[in-house]
Amino acid sequence: MCACTHTHATPARRNRRRALVIFSTSLLLVGGGVAWAAWSTSGTGAATAKATTADSLVVGPGTPVGTLYPKPAGGYGSGTVGAVHTTVSNPNAYPVRITQATVGAITITPALGKTCAPGSVVASTAGPMTLTSPIALAANAAPAAVEIPGAIEMISSAEDGCQGASIGLTLTLTAASA
Prior knowledge:
This protein is of the alpha+beta class.
């Protein structure tokens, strides 16, 4: 050793320091590499998806609301005359908006002992009628009451035997996903 006033580390101590510096530097480099790899990682692979199939709305039997009488020359004064009440459920997993209604076959059952000619009650619009206020149904909706205003009318020349008759009809509702 030298004759200087300060002390020198022993070779074993120097080796321990050197090993500690090398280990710390190695750990820093490895840790930095892992962090860099985590930011730049990616992967590619195949995936698939499938669209659902629309289910038909479930429409209950349509029945007229209120009283129906022969249509006057100036038309009915109220939207409730000729309105049709039904129930509709939406079995789809998405909400829908009913935008149109079409009246199909109409059956007239006159009161006991009376007659009412077929064709005495008709759809107020030939073909689909666009609803002024679309009807919203939630996804998987249970049967809900729906009213279609002004769907049917009684012709002005309907015979007296149509008084008290029961009227049934088929109703087709057109909806789109909402």
